[in-house]
Model the fold of this input.
Amino acid sequence: MSIAEMAKVLGKAARWNVDGRALEVDVRIVDVRSAYGNLRYQIQPLSGTGTRWVNASTVTVRES
Done:
């Protein structure tokens, strides 16, 4: 993913699948990074507090 593509997801609403289980949380993407070939998003819940870095593969970005 290019830097321009990374910038497009910043601030977007998304849904995070927690540890591959049935639990999903509505989040906002606040930062993006690529480390050792792995794309990661820093997310924060839409309701609640805190942030967490997660693998991009566990996040579904909403296109609207």
Notes: The helical segments are 3-9. The beta strands are 13-17, 24-35, 38-45, 52-55, 59-61. The chain has one helix and five strands.
